[in-house]
């Protein structure tokens, strides 16, 4: 590297060099523009003023509060409390008004639907999808297949207490594991699965005794799913005649659900969400058009 005091004029640019050279590259002495330097100085002055006026420097157990005493946390809390106060009137009215009567007050209904939409996105969409279309194992809230009923009261009850949740009043219905617990043999599972398939529009396997499957169904399944496969809402047994099956409607899916069933869980929202939000969610879910 060249001597730092050995400065020269660059022949190409006509600018004095700094005396630094690396691998034949010489550093030119191009000072920063005056406007840039002045702006830099202004930012330094502004930083010092900010340190004095606003909270900025951490201390051992606190921080400097600044002359103005500004507190963004306090401002955020105040803004939040203002919003809550603004909506409390409508929230209280939602709680006090019967579900079927909220729709008679358009302003109240609009508030409830907006509140329900926000709550649905935060709490329900991860399982049921943004528009309530659901997926395998998670019910579609847009169709007419509602295991526990799709009226306003039915939806409200499901939201409050959940399905197979840890709430004392949770709705509970469990499909026995006929194969895993050796309640039926593999052949018997094939027979009853094929019988159900033959009744719901699927093609049964050749050579399977459907009459035996019908007898097995009557002895083991009809008590919950009904003699005509119509389902029984009171015990949470879905209609097997429905176009939509929660865990798939192929013959293989039916066999799997008889053998080792999946029994999904919906959490209870009572205690997690306030009563106004649960009622708002009820109205919003009902607005999807499914149920009754």
Computed over alpha carbons, the radius of gyration is 35 Å
Structural class: mainly alpha
CATH class of one domain: Mainly Alpha
Low-pLDDT windows of residues: none
Kindly state the percentage of residues in helix.
40-55%
Largest sheet: 2 strands, antiparallel
* Multimerization status: single chain
Mean pLDDT: 91
Count of helix runs: 11
Straight-line N-to-C gap: 86 Å
Fourth CATH level, the homologous superfamily of one domain: Cytochrome c-like domain
User: Which shape, going by the Cα principal axes?
Assistant: elongated
The name of the CATH topology of one domain is Cytochrome Bc1 Complex, Chain D, domain 2
Name the helix and strand elements from N-terminus to C-terminus, one letter apiece. EEHHHHHHHHHHH
Keywords: Cell inner membrane, Cell membrane, Electron transport, Heme, Hydrogen ion transport, Ion transport, Iron, Membrane, Metal-binding, Oxidoreductase, Repeat, Respiratory chain, Transmembrane, Transmembrane helix, Transport
Subcellular location: Cell inner membrane
Protein name: Cbb3-type cytochrome c oxidase subunit
Family: Belongs to the CcoP / FixP family.
